[in-house]
Fold:
Amino acid sequence: MVVLGAALLSGGLFMLVLGGKGEKISPTEKEKVAGEITPTVVEEKDLTWKDEAGFIFQYSPKLEIDNHPEDKTNYANLEITAAKSEGKILILAKDSPYKTLDEWIEKDKSFPEKSYLNVLETKLGGKTAKKITPSEPAKTIIGAIDENILFTVELSGNDEFLKKEFEKIISSFEFFYPTEAPAQSGSASGSSAASGEDVIEEEEIIE
Structure:
């Protein structure tokens, strides 16, 4: 009986050591695991593009923007690309010869005849716009007419990164109007204030 009791006690201790599911980790290994630092992924903040043509949008710092300063015809001509990404995003602002978006779609020679997969009503910067998806080549064009200016944002190619950036640009796109410079008055103080010079008022001397 003594031998049997000792055997059961030894077996119980053995089961306690091995008890529980999973692999037993020594105190040293626990300290090692606890000391491991998980690297933090820091996302780059989006940048803001404010264009003199009167619009603003958000975009990734991974994008490169060529604003074509040599272009003297369009109010804005932005060519947006990304390294290792095929395709591009084009943003144009130019005088519109069309009074409506339907006329633009019907008469603009940049659209091949009968090439549209779909034409949808949408918004661009809060303005009524048209979203056009031609069948060939792969591209998506969103256009709006504001103050007789045709604004278009065009995505060409099937690159997934550029598709996401295109949607980001569209969703963050806003129109703004530059503040007009205040009219200068004929007074000397008004001219000085408009030019940014300090205005010194002479004190009236009472005799």
